[in-house]
Amino acid sequence: MIVQRKNAVNVVVKCYLAVAPEQVGIIHFSDEIVQAGYDHTKQLVCISWDQPVNFSLLDKMIEFNISDKADCCNRQVVLNTFLFENSSLFP
Q1: Which CATH number do you get for residue 44?
Q2: Could you tell me the pLDDT band of residue 2, with boundaries at 50, 70 and 90?
Q3: Which one of 22, 76, 84, 91 has the lowest number of neighbouring Cβ atoms within 10 Å?
Q4: Domain carrying residue 29
Q5: 3-class SS string, the chain
Q6: How many domains does the chain have?
Q7: For residue 90, how many C-alpha atoms fall within 13 Å in the half-sphere facing its CB?
């Protein structure tokens, strides 16, 4: 398993690409996620390897997370907060 952390969105590689934009991001983009043909849980968007990646949607989710955390003092605080809130996702 490969884990990459970037811009407050974690990407975990398994049998599918899983993107974790936090629950508030899933709620905000739920209609667009479904319209793109992706499955999702309360915490993850699952993109199977045979599906096209909607980079525009991923970019919107990243920008949403950054603006959602705008009251934090810097991006490192955003990342640390996200990792703490989602620590159960990492072995």
Answers
A1: 3.90.1150.200
A2: very low
A3: 91
A4: 2-58+67-89
A5: CEEEEECCEEEEECCEEEEECHHHHHHHHHHHHHHCCCEECCCCEEEECCCCCCHHHHHHHHHHHHHHCCCCCCHHHHHHHHHHHCHHHCC
A6: 1
A7: 13
